[in-house]
Amino acid sequence: MFQGIRGKIIYNYLFLILISMLVVGVSLIWMLQNYLLDNLDQNMTNQGRLIADVVSEEVSLGNYDKVQEKVIQLASDLNLRITIVLKDGRVIGDSESDPDSMENHKNRIEISQALQKQVGIDKRMSSTTEIDTMYVAVPIINQGEVLGAARIGLPLQEINRTFLKVRGFMFIGILIATLIAILISLKLAKGFTEPIASISRGARKIAAGDLTTRVYSGLRDEIGELGLAINDMTKTLQQHIEEISQEKSRLENILATIASGVIMLDKFGFIRVVNPAAEEMFGINALIAEGKQNVEVIRNFGLNQEIENCILQEKFIEYEFTLYFPEERVLQCYLAPFYRDKKIAGITIVFHDITKIRKVEQMRADFVANASHELRTPLTVIKGYSETLLHGALDDREHAEKFITIIDHEADRLQRLVEELLNLSHLESRRQDPLEESADLLAIIPNVGEELKPRLLDKAIFLDLDLPKGLPHVNANPDRFKQILVNLLDNAIKYSPQGSRVQVTIQEEEKTVKILVKDTGMGIPAKDLPRIFERFYRVDKARSRQMGGFGLGLSIVKHMVENMGGTIGVESEENKGSTFWFTLLKKHN
Ligand code: ADP
What we know:
Layout: H1 4-61, H2 64-78, E1 81-86, E2 91-94, H3 109-115, E3 120-125, E4 132-142, E5 145-155, H4 156-207, H5 222-257, E6 261-266, E7 271-274, H6 276-282, H7 286-289, H8 294-297, H9 301-313, E8 317-323, E9 329-340, E10 343-353, H10 355-390, H11 397-429, H12 441-451, H13 453-459, E11 462-466, H14 478-494, E12 501-508, E13 512-519, H15 541-546, H16 553-563, E14 568-573, E15 577-585
């Protein structure tokens, strides 16, 4: 019926109460019975003595009839059975029966004791009344001589009835006391268990995740202490969880925003975390990838092997590889194991996209190689001819003049190259603010045309300037703009046939002005188009060099346009012609 602590308290109480009531009850009854019996013995002895006194004279005188009379009288007064027995055992008086008809009582235990001047007591069934009786006999003494014995008998039934009554009262008393004790124990148990039940309800709520719950802690005892301890624990737990979740969201934010890719795997190679940068690098979806084996997701044999090495050897690994899907990228990655309880729990891989760095490095290396090559060619020529001159050709005037002309030509070429390189490095190192500059294209373009007239005439090329009226100024340095246009027109003339036509068109757009230089020359093959603005890039090296070019012109032009906030591009078809265009920002005000 009652379970848990409450049940235990109640049942233990009940057990204790019942045991103590039983012990108390039994010993009380036992004591009471003894007390009553002692009292009865004493009373009966006193009454016996009284009767012995009353009849002693008549007995000594031999007035037995008188004795019988007195016996009947006394018995009805005292509500007892009285028997008077002579020394020889003859019954001379009895309140229940005719003394003459009664047998000799000398051998009755109580009588024989009384005849020996003692108080005789016995309990047995009376042969006269046939009832269980308690007998008390006292001697009848006259002048120091024992004349007989006076005996009183009390039916045991009566005594037992009294005892039964006493036991009944005791039982009811004990029952009432037990009931009261049970009620008190119930109340006490409730008092003990209610706070515990309330604490356990609270604890269950906390366990379910509601950390704002506080349990009952009002008592100033161990239970109250328990409540306080649980509340303190919950508070600390709440603080820790808040700290952890803040830390977690901070980490998630970092992971979500860093440009480096991050992939975390457990020690079995199952992917646990993929950040957005890694998703993009590998063309995967974190939701799909997480929970899968690395080999299912990362399609790179080398990287998968390094993952295995990192997990098995528990060592930091740096690895660089090229990924071809979804985009060609050079990735540098760092694989590092992480531990839990001093045992490897997994590894973290951080990826850096170093495609651009590698490209720049490659470009620098190419640039140095190209520049050296371009410098070496004229130098070799100069060195060759000057040595020939020194070894005697100086005296051969005709050849000497020719050789010196070549040396001069190559020195010019060298000078131009150095100037162009300086120009390029200057453009790369310093970015001008185009907003501070202003150029009037309509004034500059015709001037450029004039300057190029000798070259145009040389190839009989017609320069068509298609200039709109009222063009706004642009954000550009006029000298730079001139240089750009000269470069583009120079190329157009250079790569166009005799007698062809070169056209300069201007288109006004919303925020920009677009300048187009169109020729009908040899054009550029499609495969070369994406690289045409690279330094030293030439479609036909031999031919370009023959024409005096280094392949630096377009890259200088590109730098200049971009420095002024514009863009540059080209459309070209082989043997049909090319259109180089660039934009410049319109000047506002
Ligand atoms: P270069 O000094 O060799 O002309 P550029 O940088 O000016 O160097 O040009 C790079 C290359 O682009 C040239 O070598 C040439 O092959 C090609 N090119 C440039 N402009 C034209 C054009 N208008 N038509 C055809 N090819 C051109």
